[in-house]
From TrEMBL, chains A, E:
BP term (GO), one: sulfate assimilation
UniProt keyword terms in alphabetical order: 4Fe-4S, Iron, Iron-sulfur, Metal-binding, Oxidoreductase
Superkingdom of this protein's organism: Bacteria
Organism, as annotated: Candidatus Desulfolinea nitratireducens
Gene designation: dsrA
EC class: oxidoreductase
One of the Pfam families matching this protein, by short name: NIR_SIR
Sequence ranges assigned to domain Nitrite/sulphite reductase 4Fe-4S in this UniProt record: 154-369
Biological classification of the source: Bacteria, Bacillati, Chloroflexota, Anaerolineae, Anaerolineales
GO cellular component terms given for this protein: sulfite reductase complex (NADPH)
Protein name per UniProt: Dissimilatory-type sulfite reductase subunit alpha
Domain Nitrite/Sulfite reductase ferredoxin-like: 84-146
UniProtKB/TrEMBL annotation, chains B, D:
Keyword Metal-binding: yes
EC number assigned by the record: 1.8.99.5
PANTHER family reported for this sequence: SULFITE REDUCTASE [NADPH] SUBUNIT BETA, SULFITE REDUCTASE [NADPH] SUBUNIT BETA-RELATED
Record's protein name: Dissimilatory-type sulfite reductase subunit beta
Keywords annotated in UniProt: 4Fe-4S, Iron, Iron-sulfur, Metal-binding, Oxidoreductase
UniProt cofactor(s): [4Fe-4S] cluster; siroheme
Gene Ontology molecular functions: 4 iron, 4 sulfur cluster binding; dissimilatory sulfite reductase (NADH) activity; electron transfer activity; heme binding; metal ion binding; sulfite reductase (ferredoxin) activity; sulfite reductase activity
From TrEMBL, chains C, F:
Keyword terms, alphabetized: Cytoplasm
Location(s), subcellular: Cytoplasm
Protein name as annotated: TusE/DsrC/DsvC family sulfur relay protein
Keyword Cytoplasm listed: yes
Molecular function terms from GO: sulfur carrier activity
NCBIfam families noted in UniProt: dsrC_tusE_dsvC
Active site: 104
Ranges in a coiled coil: none
Length: 395, 352, 105, 352, 395, 105
């Protein structure tokens, strides 16, 4: 194959057991010039240890302010097929479940308009359709709409929210993550498609404290399922685990962060002091057949997670320790709207809500949200004596 | 007029029948073997999941391939995970082993469940982004080829999440990963004043600099950078095409360790810097794969059962992490940003 | 380099159609750019927004945030999208001859 | 010409013979009973220490009194501790009980060793300082009268150090105490512009404000304070007499808990705010004594043996500290200063 | 007593078992007008809940820039005896050991010149002689010099250093705290008496990690004794503790922070994995007869501790994990001098050395001190990616 | 209010002897204050320091830090104490008519 000799570096990445993206690029390249040029430009990057994409690009489809990332090569003469190489962010269905029909439709649309290359999925959760020229954008979107695929977010808007598999396939789910996600995505279509905020805003939903969508680290609004009553226990199954190869004392009891579990090996009795349990999920994770979350379920809402730009990464902070999460999710929607409103009113350009809370103080945020301060919001009270009083209080 | 704002496909139409029937009524799960989960509903229904590693950057043909498999074994249903793996959902037990056999035959990578490493969450790199300090897919491929045995097998004491981001924007959200691979620049921006003048919103560029290294230069209608204050984050470039930071010599990789997300046992933790720089060495980045393997194996051989990287390090202490891994301690590891003082040691109780 | 035709004169624009040299902007040019953004005619309402953007940019060196734009011009976002189908950033700012926004509009 | 720079008296001349002989060669100690320590040298020599509480603010006559006692029982030697207690050093065992009996007779307070509370480190207050938000000696007296049983007895699971400072300067170094009593102001400075103009180094005053609440007012050759940004630290007053912050209504007491100094078991910890304000209520500050007793006793009845206040709180969680003590949680407790974000909770794992 | 009726509030503080400072003030007041006026002004403060001292005051003795705190009452007409009421800070002997002779001499001098009231001791460690008029300052100091009492620090100088009782009466001491203190106090007389720094600078010395002078919290330079080899153990005495009423497993082993102790109850054998011990002192504290610090002794030096003004309180940070501490302590003195030099050169007005390190970065400080970075300096590496490179390194 | 006598004119000073009204300062007054600080005669060396302090204060609104004072005047601290026995803050600044230093001199 003469083709191969043009990409000696990348060819080396076709070896080895892990699926090769190079192979995929070549497959696409066989029928698509864009994919082929992309491969060659990448080879050049591998050789010279530098990227060849120009800065930014603002392109889009009619009526939307986001959803397409503009991209142009610095080397249009060398790689004319990717002179314009924009990506679509296509909103995925809750939980990334697909019928093969749907996926095949998507492939057909993409082969028609784009490079034939995709990311399944992007880090935010979208289906990324990787590379189409400017002229193809609107027609491609029209065809996507035809098969019911809408665009996701980009720019200073609500980004495509995502959730864990939840009740779809997980017995731990304390929130109907899939439904909540679908509901709010539809509720906030305007915010998703028409950038209007100081910066991006992300919502991610996990059914329990295992946080399988990593919401606490990478969403402005992290919804994490939990419960308020007692862990449900099936004592027989506990005994079964003990009879299996689980060392309940060492693996469960000793690792319980609150020390609220007791294990009597002789009687095979496990006792949980639920009042002291912090619902970390560890014991349940280890013995899913024996232990289950309580029945009074809802979610903890944490706010402010994000990557390091500009002031360092933040993990989201507990703002609502417990909220019931049932359709039509009005409390949650109100919460989000109020928070956005406050942020939009007070935020500086490119200031995420977590940064704004840091800048104006948790006190100001809680006041705007009309929420009482509770110890669940903090891991420890302040260690510095620099705190404020309302002049009204000092009389 | 184009339709707009109709939202994503309804997930309900995407679910396989067994899920529709047992929706929200799963009772428990078992880890059958690496790559295979069994979920059992209150109804008694069983659902087997077979997890398959994905390179994430895939062609439509690949999608059609997996659709073919799902049609053959799973009634035309499949899903992807939050870490971009592919999952085949098998409701008929008798199809499980044939599916697995088929997958192996076709060269798919089955694994990634339980105490194995899963797919590294990653980003665009040189494939499609304008700010990368390295590639994404290539390093992931090299690392996973090297660690493949840890994907297909349960050889670790606990979960280990490897992630990669190709610049400080951290689209891979690597900041809470057990092992994070992060592209970094090491040279201040080179300024093209003509571009700055005509194309950049100067006040926004100035505000974008975390360390206040950028000042306006009203005379030149441009700006200046105090190089000593610049730590090469590239945020100015994000705001302004006239300030590129990428550089073949300056750019490379840093390695971070000990982050986690789940609240199991301990609260989530940030990843922390272990190796400030490794060179970009495509196509197989041997320095990076070696470093990751060293860290992973040092942890795997020393940690207690169920003890994540960060939990282990906190138990034995960072001084021990460095002595056990043999990673040299460099001054870059000592924080000097906003919360720095919280990371200094205020006790004579440490290990030699 | 892509070009835009203004009464037969070719002006340089970048790949996204933003003018390369902000000094070349004129009301006529605006109208020409508008056509590329599916704005057939620049009405008074359009001009209100374009002028607001230009004034704001002259004063602060940046494009305004959307909330400000809506508040101060009195159009809600929906209306702005009706007027500029490609939106305030890609559409209105381009027509107003502003640099390509990296921020928020 | 006056002699200068001759330094403090040489400690060697101050040591009792038993110490000189066993200097650096002590072998072990025992806690004989509350207030009494026994140190045994490698030589076999014994040294009994009897610890006596001191009000710290004492007259020369009191010093002469204790000198008299030391002459009678201790060969004319005594020492003070780092917490301002008095220690009688008894090298002749037969003098121990007579000394103790004498001390009790004369009304001295014997105690403060081992798992008891010791003397609260404290400061000047209204006695001699210009910035206090409360008195020092008076509150200490009231608190110690109330907690006296914990001084003379071993009724606690571990050490508990109570400290007091009368303003944010924290001369009592209360910031790492198990229980800290801290005077606070709650009103911004009232500015006397004439004084500011003639007596203050304005740039230094501005730099002194932690929150940037002070701006120059070049026209008035003075400065202005943005009241909403002021958190009443009084640092501006330290720099400038024209900006007093003390106020009978604004001033009062805050209570902090969970700090420690020693590295035993855990590294040192900062004290953290538990009660943002209690009124100044001389002469016996009942709100303060109640609060301190409540905290102390809640801890003492719930903590494990050897578990200091902060260790206990970290084990059970701050949410439990507040529910067990019944102290209401107020918004002032939530940090909003430089390191604030490190104190927010980033996990759904907490207790109800 | 008619006198009493003038101080009804303070009188209440003469009751109760804890020693009463009011009684002391009254005793002094019986022979001294200053003490009497002080008592009455204090009563007024108790009544009106506010202090009556004027701001600041700069007074002193010849040749010194510090050591005396100036103080004037706001109510000189009402309380003329304390119109001028300055305090001396008198440098205490190491470890606060005294002969009664020495104390009696001090009392005599103070009765002659001052109020007869003292603090034994001030929070920094000085003997505080509380209140003398301006004119009495020099004569009083002259008399103090006569009996060999020199002044301590105040203002922007080295403050009176202090130390724990150490080898004087403590078997844990790994440093000769008393001697080191005496030596450096004499070495740095100039720095103690003549303010020359950006702000105050404190040195405190503890013989072991129990840190009985709280050095880590309240000194710019905290010296804490430690060892590098193995904890010395007397197995018989271990057994004795076990036979006593100590639950070695629960009280010692389970509380060891590194988990490096093992206890075999049957054989009464304690084993310490010294390589993993962090020398926290807990086990030694509990069993002083059985366990002792190792023999290769020295000190850890921590830098930067201070109270909250201006940027929040700091605890000192490990800068030198281990330094041998033997006379003439040259390494230590050099260390202090180099650090002061860097601070003095770079510090802003009223910036403590810890704040300066925070502002310029640990990197700059270590470079100035010519110290290599080691993991012992930190509790964890940075979590943000904002770090610097020397351009020389990037080639 | 305490007073200091300057050629028979009484000027207000505070309890520490710092002049209340900085505008009243004069070289003569300086000499008068000097006497209260055990500086019998203001030599050229003294004036060098006093003038440095005044200039610095006029420029920056604060007294200089000691290190600066020593560096820029060329006198080491020991010499300064020899010249001003009560030290730079209490002695030299007072004579120079500066506000009572809260900082460092
Ligand atoms: C495509 C994607 C990476 C991927 O390969 O998967 C991506 C790609 C870019 N991200 Fe991202 N981000 C992507 C997920 C993320 C995530 C992860 C997440 O959303 O869970 C994060 C971290 C979480 C967060 O939001 O904080 C993330 C944090 C950033 C940041 C830093 C934001 C911050 O506040 O710290 C930037 C910089 C910016 O916004 O200017 C950024 C900017 C960018 C830009 C637009 C580059 C830029 O500077 O303008 C990248 C465009 C690349 C391209 O040409 O395609 N991207 N970005 C991800 C979106 C795919 C999708 O929609 O599914
Ligand atoms: C499929 C997926 C959810 C989804 O919607 O896609 C998922 C599914 C399950 N997770 Fe997860 N987790 C998934 C991403 C995550 C993530 C997010 C991430 O990695 O970015 C986390 C947080 C990681 C972290 O803490 O850094 C996550 C932390 C957990 C944990 C907590 C582990 C711990 O001890 O810290 C559990 C509990 C366990 O494994 O015992 C868990 C448990 C589970 C269970 C057992 C839940 C259940 O009953 O079904 C599922 C099978 C796990 C397995 O792989 O063995 N899952 N899980 C995700 C699979 C990703 C992948 O392809 O590897
Ligand atoms: C006399 C004194 C040193 C001095 O030079 O004056 C001293 C003396 C002893 N200390 Fe201390 N400590 C003294 C202040 C301190 C301080 C400083 C402070 O409180 O400001 C601390 C740090 C407090 C903190 O951590 O917040 C201190 C933390 C300790 C500890 C650690 C306790 C812990 O578990 O956290 C021990 C070990 C122990 O008690 O088992 C200890 C142990 C000891 C021993 C047993 C050491 C020995 O072998 O002689 C001494 C008798 C203790 C006792 O009171 O039972 N000493 N000790 C100080 C007495 C102050 C007082 O009057 O109460
Ligand atoms: C007398 C004493 C309190 C006492 O009753 O014992 C004291 C009294 C004053 N201190 Fe202090 N400090 C005293 C020990 C401390 C300590 C404790 C220590 O040294 O171990 C600290 C905390 C440790 C530290 O240095 O950080 C301390 C931290 C402060 C601060 C805050 C410094 C900071 O950087 O945060 C100030 C404010 C200032 O310097 O302007 C201050 C200022 C003051 C002033 C000079 C008031 C002022 O604003 O100018 C007080 C004079 C009161 C008076 O009129 O007598 N004092 N001061 C202590 C000195 C006695 C002695 O020499 O033995
Ligand atoms: S977050 Fe919880 S509910 Fe969701 S998939 Fe993970 S374990 Fe299940
Ligand atoms: S959920 Fe966590 S805290 Fe609760 S009992 Fe289980 S392990 Fe313990
Ligand atoms: S991490 Fe940086 S380089 Fe990589 S995709 Fe995100 S923005 Fe682009
Ligand atoms: S690269 Fe980052 S630190 Fe450097 S000038 Fe740009 S924004 Fe500032
Ligand atoms: S704590 Fe404040 S009020 Fe109390 S002595 Fe120190 S400086 Fe004065
Ligand atoms: S009291 Fe403190 S916060 Fe308020 S103005 Fe003064 S220095 Fe600033
Ligand atoms: S610090 Fe250590 S050596 Fe010093 S007195 Fe305390 S226990 Fe003894
Ligand atoms: S000194 Fe501390 S760490 Fe070392 S063995 Fe003893 S208890 Fe454990």
């Amino acid at each position: 194959m003469t083709e191969d000799s043009k990409t000696p570096l990348l060819d080396q990445l076709e070896e080895g057991p892990w699926p090769s993206f190079v192979t995929e690029m070549k497959r696409a390249g066989e029928k698509n010039e864009m994919a082929k040029d992309l491969l060659h430009q990448l080879e050049k990057s591998y050789k010279n240890k530098i990227g060849y994409w120009k800065h930014g690009g603002i392109v889009g489809v009619r009526g939307y302010g986001g959803g397409v990332i503009g991209r142009y090569t610095e080397l249009p003469e060398e790689f004319p097929a990717i002179a314009e190489f924009h990506t679509f962010r296509v909103n995925h269905p809750s939980g990334w479940f697909y019928t093969t029909d749907k996926l095949r439709q998507l492939c057909d649309v993409w082969d028609k308009h784009g490079s034939g290359l995709t990311n399944m999925h992007g880090a935010t959760g979208d289906i990324i359709l990787l590379g189409a020229p400017t002229d193809a954008l609107q027609p491609c979107f029209d065809d996507l709409a035809e098969i019911d695929f809408d665009l996701g977010g980009s720019g200073s808007d609500m980004r495509t929210p995502s959730c864990c598999v939840g009740p779809g396939r997980c017995e731990f789910a304390c929130v109907d993550t899939l439904d909540l996600l679908h509901d709010i995505t539809n509720e906030f279509q305007d915010e998703l498609h028409r950038p209007m905020f100081p910066y991006k805003s992300k919502i991610k939903i996990s059914g329990c404290a295992n946080d399988c969508v990593a919401s606490v680290a990478r969403s402005d609004f992290s919804v994490i399922g939990t419960w308020r009553d007692e862990i449900r226990m099936d004592p027989d199954e506990v005994a079964n685990y003990a009879d299996g190869n689980m060392d309940i004392q060492a693996e469960v009891v000793d690792l319980c962060p609150t020390g609220c579990i007791k294990w009597e090996a002789e009687t095979k009795t496990l006792t949980i002091d639920n009042g002291e349990c912090n619902r970390c999920m560890h014991c349940i994770n280890l013995m899913p057949k024996a232990l289950r979350p309580g029945k009074d379920q809802g979610a903890t809402i944490l706010v402010g997670g994000k990557a390091p730009i500009v002031h360092g990464a933040l993990m989201a902070w507990v703002i609502v320790p417990f909220m019931k999460m049932e359709p039509p999710y009005d409390d949650f929607k109100d919460f989000i709207r109020t928070a956005w409103e406050w942020w939009d009113e007070n935020g500086k350009m490119r200031e995420r809500i977590g940064e704004l809370i840091n800048r104006l103080g948790m006190r100001a945020f809680l006041k705007a949200m009309d929420l009482p301060p509770v110890p669940q919001m903090i891991s420890a009270p302040r260690a510095n004596p620099y705190y404020f009083w309302d002049p009204e209080e000092v009389k | 007029m184009t339709r707009t704002d109709f939202g994503p496909p309804n997930y309900k139409e995407m679910l396989p029948p067994v899920i529709k029937e047992n929706y929200g009524k799963w009772k428990y799960h078992e880890r059958v073997k690496p790559g295979v989960l069994l979920h059992v509903g209150e109804s008694g229904d069983e659902l087997y999941t077979v997890r398959v590693g994905s390179g994430r950057l895939v062609s439509t043909d690949w999608i059609r391939d997996i659709c073919g498999i799902a049609e053959k074994f799973c009634g035309g249903h499949l899903r992807f995970t939050s870490r971009h793996n592919l999952e085949f959902l098998v409701s008929e037990k008798e199809k499980l082993e044939p599916l697995i056999a088929h997958l192996k035959e076709e060269g798919y990578a089955v694994g990634g469940t339980g105490h194995s490493i899963s797919n590294p969450v990653h980003t665009q790199g040189w494939i499609h982004c304008h700010t990368p300090a390295t590639d994404a897919s290539g390093i992931v491929k090299a690392v996973m080829d090297d660690l493949f045995e840890y994907f297909t097998d349960w050889k670790m004491p606990a979960h280990c999440r490897v992630s990669l981001a190709c610049c400080l924007n951290m689209c891979g959200a690597v900041h809470c990963s057990d092992i994070a691979i992060l592209g970094i620049h090491r040279k201040p921006p080179t300024i093209d004043h003509d571009i700055v003048r005509s194309k950049c919103e100067i006040p926004n560029v100035i505000a974008a600099c975390p360390t206040g290294a950028i000042r306006p230069d009203p005379k030149a209608k441009s700006l200046t950078v105090t190089d000593e204050k610049c730590m090469y984050c590239g945020n100015c470039y994000t705001m302004c095409p006239g300030m590129p930071v990428a550089d073949p010599v300056g750019d490379g990789i840093s390695i971070w360790v000990g982050g986690k997300i789940s609240s199991a046992r301990t609260p989530p933790k940030f990843s922390r810097l272990a190796i400030p720089f490794l060179p970009n060495n495509p196509p197989r980045w041997p320095e990076v794969t070696d470093a990751v393997r060293n860290i992973l194996e040092t942890w795997a051989s020393h940690a207690n059962k169920h003890e994540r990287m960060g939990e282990w390090i906190e138990r034995v202490g960072w001084e021990r992490f460095f002595s056990l891994t043999g990673i040299p301690f460099s001054v870059q590891l000592i924080d000097d940003f906003t919360l720095a003082s919280d990371t200094y040691r205020s006790t004579p109780a440490f290990k030699w | 380099m892509p070009m835009i035709d203004l009464d037969g004169v070719q002006l340089e624009v970048d790949e996204d159609g933003f003018i390369e040299n902000p000094d070349e902007w004129s009301e006529k040019l605006a109208a020409a750019i508008a056509k590329t953004e599916e704005v057939e005619e620049l009405s008074e309402d359009h001009w209100k927004i374009v002028n607001y953007l230009r004034d704001y940019y002259k004063k602060f060196g940046i494009a305004p945030m959307i909330r400000k734009l809506c508040k101060e011009t009195g159009y809600d976002l929906k209306t702005i999208y009706e007027m500029f189908p490609s939106g305030p950033a890609k559409g209105a700012c381009k027509i107003a001859g502003l640099p390509k926004p990296t921020g928020c509009v």
